[in-house]
């Protein structure tokens, strides 16, 4: 078994909240490996640490873990635009350097959730598609699932800063894009979402917000916080200390954080290169192959979003 031991504090959270029993972990991982070996349509990673992230994200329910793994790899086939930019593409670093999507390296304490920031206003929506920004995020997610125990056990928090967002950004958020984003994150990733915090919300925001909210589970709906310009309110949930210098924190500048991630991606280059082979072959799935319509619903079933 090649898995990292947790700190005592995280191990206690894993035991109480995720039902993790150290003496059973290796059997559970082996059970998932045996199941994967019998799925002709699934090409999946079988690293112990990788599978453990999915088990933790599913509170060690073996059936839920299987469903989530299947969906995670199915989404790669059914929403390929979220995976089209590889870590070796020049566009990858170009988007990373915009600081539109940053995962904060600093933690508030040893048992704190991992915090990400999404800043759509920092990219030109006439030049970049939302799917390209998400492509960069899916690469970082792979690294986080492999190495971030706080993310796997304590969960994740997201700050969505909508400062400088334009109508072009809104127009990219079609109902189908929103549905795919929710399925690819809430449903397919083994993440414990501990809250999304909205800052600098512009006119028209409610339309998108309500569309996203309607697709979330009741638990995740209850963890949406709209602070707009009230940063002090947000600091009650997310320590100011860990934020980038541009937000008054001690977590390094946005450039330093993006440089940190560029280096991290280089370190994971072989891992990421190997990862592109994984996915599903729907022609080999037992029963009916899964299509985008099966996973995301029909395009026509969504009403058009209206912006005033």
Shape by Cα distribution = globular
Work out the helicity level. 40-55%
> How do the strands of the widest beta sheet line up side by side?
2-3-4-5-6
The class by helix and strand makeup works out as: alpha/beta
Brief account:
By secondary structure, the chain is of the alpha/beta class.
Describe the 3D structure.
With 308 residues, this protein is an alpha/beta fold. It has 15 helices and seven strands. It has helices spanning 8-18, 22-37, 48-57, 62-78, 90-97, 130-147, 149-154, 167-172, 175-187, 205-213, 218-221, 231-235, 254-267, 269-275, 292-296; strands spanning 42-43, 101-103, 114-118, 156-161, 193-199, 224-228, 279-280. The strands form two sheets. It has a five-stranded mixed beta sheet with strand order 2-3-4-5-6. It has a two-stranded antiparallel sheet with strand order 1-7. Helix 2 (22-37) packs across helix 3.
Keywords:
single chain; 308 residues; alpha/beta; 5-stranded mixed beta sheet; two-stranded antiparallel sheet; 7 strands; 10% strand
């Amino acid at each position: 078994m090649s898995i990292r031991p947790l700190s005592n504090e995280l191990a206690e959270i894993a035991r109480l909240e995720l039902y993790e029993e150290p003496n059973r972990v290796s059997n559970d991982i082996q059970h998932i490996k045996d199941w994967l070996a019998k799925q002709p349509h699934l090409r999946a990673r079988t690293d112990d640490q990788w599978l453990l992230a999915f088990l933790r994200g599913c509170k060690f329910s073996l059936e839920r873990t299987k469903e989530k793994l299947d969906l995670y790899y199915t989404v790669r086939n059914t929403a390929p635009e979220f995976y089209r930019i590889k870590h070796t593409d020049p566009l990858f670093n170009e988007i990373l350097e915009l600081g539109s999507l940053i995962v904060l390296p600093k933690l508030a304490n040893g048992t704190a959730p991992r915090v990400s920031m999404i800043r759509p206003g920092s990219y030109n929506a006439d030049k970049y598609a939302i799917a390209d920004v998400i492509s960069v995020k899916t690469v970082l997610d792979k690294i986080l699932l492999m190495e971030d125990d706080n993310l796997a056990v304590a969960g994740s928090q997201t700050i969505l800063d909508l400062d400088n967002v334009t109508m072009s950004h809104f127009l990219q958020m079609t109902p189908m894009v929103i549905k795919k984003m929710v399925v690819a994150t809430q449903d397919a990733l083994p993440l414990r979402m501990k809250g999304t915090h909205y800052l600098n919300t512009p006119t028209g925001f409610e339309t998108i917000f309500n569309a996203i909210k309607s697709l979330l589970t009741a638990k995740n709906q209850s963890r949406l916080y709209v602070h707009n310009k009230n940063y002090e309110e947000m600091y009650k949930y997310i320590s100011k200390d860990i934020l980038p210098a541009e937000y008054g924190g001690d977590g390094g500048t946005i450039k330093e954080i993006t440089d940190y991630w560029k280096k991290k991606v280089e370190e994971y280059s072989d891992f990421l290169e190997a990862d592109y082979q994984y996915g599903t072959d729907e022609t080999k799935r037992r029963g009916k192959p899964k299509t985008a319509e099966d996973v995301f619903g029909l395009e026509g079933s969504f009403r058009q979003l209206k912006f005033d």
